[in-house]
Amino acid sequence: MDINDVTYFKERAHEILERLDEMSAQIDQNSKDTNTCDNAARQTLIEQAREGRLGSDWQTLQRKIDAGSTTMDAIWSGKDASPEAVAIRGQARRNLNTVMESLRQQQQEHPKDESNPLAGLNDLTASMKHLSSRMVELRDRG
After folding, report:
1. Rounded CA gap, 36 and 47, in Å?
2. Where are the domains of the chain?
3. What does the pLDDT look like over 66-105, one tens digit per residue?
């Protein structure tokens, strides 16, 4: 078959479009599967909260959510200032700090480990400090 043949290019284009359609359908299915899993996990957590298996603070907050007197957004944003919401945010903050400290410690012990989300943090911090000092210098000059 002659490479200059228009039919050849049309066939290749058609094959490519079919592959793209298949990939698009697979992406759509993966998205639906992920949403289904997320919804199932969310529903499981809601049931656990209702039953008190996540602690009394979550049980109280879930009851308030069910009654329409608060929302997850209000709990996490701080709009819900109830003692239970404050306690949940405080615990989440402590958990996050523990994870961050662990990552920092791993970064210090293994600075070249690219699997650590904080890999390169020292370089980034140094670059930011340098940029900040250069900005101050430029501001002071003129």
Report:
1. 16
2. 1-51
3. 999 999 999 999 999 999 999 999 999 999 889 888 888 8
